[in-house]
Amino acid sequence: xxxxxxxxxxxxxxxxxxxxxxxxxxxxxxxxxxxxxxxxxxxxxxxxxxxxxxxxxxxxxxxxxxxxxxxxxxxxxxxxxxxxxxxxxxxxxxxxxxxxxx
Length: 102
Ligand code: FES
Known about the structure:
By secondary structure, this protein is mainly beta. 0% of the residues lie in helices and 39% in strands. The protein has no helices and 10 strands. The strands form 3 sheets. The chain has a 4-stranded antiparallel β-sheet, with no helix packed on it. A 3-stranded antiparallel β-sheet has the order 1-10-9, with no helix packed on it. A 3-stranded antiparallel β-sheet has the order 5-6-7, with no helix packed on it. Strand 6 and strand 7 form a beta hairpin. The termini are close together.
């Protein structure tokens, strides 16, 4: 199992970039989600700033390039140029205060 991060490294809500794995993780309401750091629009990384994947309200995942917005829990794009597409989810498991690839 590949270690990704400690659970307490993640704010709730909050996000963390995992450059080595090309992934990022997002936490909301105690639940953690992981996605490939790849915008469905142009295939670029979503973030310009390290660990900054959420919009100003911490309500949605936001692509920094053209502002596409994605639902935290599903990765579905709900606004922007890739409307209707989705981020690629990555299966993870959280145990003993650590997040691992499932
Ligand atoms: S590259 Fe993400 S919205 Fe265009």
